[in-house]
Amino acid sequence: MTTNQLVLIEARENDIREVSFEALALAQHLKQKEDSIVALVCSKLSQKQIETLGQHGATKVIQASHPQLEEYSTEAYRQVLLQIIDKEKPSRIIMGHTAIGKDLAPRLAMKLGAGLLSDITEVRGEDSEKPFFIRPIYSGKAFEEKQERSSPSFLTIRPNNFQSNCLENIQHPEVEDFEVQLKELRTEILETVKKMSSKVDLTAAKIVVAGGRGVKSEDGFKPLQELADVLGGAVGASRAACDAGYCDYGLQIGQTGKVITPTVYFAIGISGAIQHLAGMSQSKTIVAINKDPEAPIFEIADYGIVGDLFEVVPLLTEAFKKSADK
User: Fold this and answer.
1) Where does FAD bind (predicted)?
2) Is 67 helix (H, G, I), strand (E, B) or coil?
3) Closest-CA residue to 286 (of 296, 22, 214, 159)
4) Are residues 99 and 151 both part of a single domain?
5) pLDDT (average), residues 259-280
6) CATH code at 55?
């Protein structure tokens, strides 16, 4: 008997978010022999994008296009997901642990009486029928193992923790245009004001350059932005820097901000308070720059530089520029 896994594809301004490919990769790892992987997108994709989803493991692509779905709406997305789940009867629904996933998955799980495993960073025993799903707890100081006990079950995965891979054998997914039927919505989006706080999406960035109180001012973030631009990364900040008015709260990383797991994290002028560590301690490589050799951030850093950030950061930027030019 074949079963379906349903993956919610997030498309932003006609681009598919990387976390969606990571979700497909997880579905591929968990896939039993005859299982199908259904990719659901609440918009219309180009033929090339559909083929890309197929290359990443989707056996079927469902396009649910409707004017009320052009911007994320909890009510509208919830209705569509419930209709698709009822139709496809998936054993597992996977989505990113993003603003959308964190809002949508608990609502759907509650409505269906299903289990929810959130903020997953690792899977063990994926070849078995009952794999273990790993998630960090207590601000990353411990990890817990969980197993699915319901069908369907909902999973949300933390971005940058699962490697997205193209299949060796090109597969052309079946495409279905789903006719969306929305009941009367109790809320309406009147206007969306987009505030670009970083040139690169902070939650999806592979490289993050973050500043703290040691940056001293709004202008103090300019060298950090220059370094991030050279590396193709995003700029972030500690709560102390945001509270001081040096930058927008949209850049805040930590327990009350964004939780990220980039490949490289630069902690610049950040002391390393526990609230901040909760948002970045799972980064693959941590580079700390601080003039205080006793700063707690050095305890978790893979590389540390004791010095004035206003001298060190421009030198790093210049070095990376020269390396890129070679």
Assistant:
1) 213, 238-239, 252-256, 269-276, 290
2) helix
3) 296
4) yes
5) 95
6) 3.40.50.620
Q: Which two tokens stand for residue 285?
A: 């490589």
Say how far apart CA 120 and CA 118 lie, in whole Å: 6
* Largest pairwise CA distance in the chain: 63
Are the beta carbons of 219 and 105 closer than 8 angstroms? no
| Range 44-49, long-range pairs (CB < 8 A, 24+ positions) | 45/11, 45/16, 46/14, 49/11, 49/16
Residues making up the annotated binding site for FAD are 213, 238-239, 252-256, 269-276, 290
Q: What is the pLDDT of residues 21-72, one digit of tens each?
A: 999 999 999 987 778 999 999 999 999 999 999 999 999 999 999 999 989 9
How many whole angstroms separate alpha carbon 21 and alpha carbon 16? 8
Assess contact for 93 and 15: CB atoms under 8 A.
no
Phi-psi category of residue 315: left, alpha or beta, with phi > 0 → left and psi -120 to 50 → alpha: alpha
Instruction: Please tell me whether residues 215 and 142 are part of one structural domain.
Output: no
Say how far apart CA 268 and CA 259 lie, in whole Å: 17
Give the residue numbers of the binding site: 213, 238-239, 252-256, 269-276, 290
Q: Please tell me whether the peptide bond between 159 and the residue prior to it is cis, using omega within 30 degrees of 0.
A: no
Per-residue pLDDT of 85-139, as tens digits, reads: 999 999 999 999 999 999 999 999 999 999 999 999 999 987 677 899 999 988 7
Whether residue 14 is predicted with pLDDT greater than 90 in this model: the reply is no
Cα–Cα distances in angstroms (integers) from residue 314 to residues 6, 221, 228, in the given order: 46, 12, 11
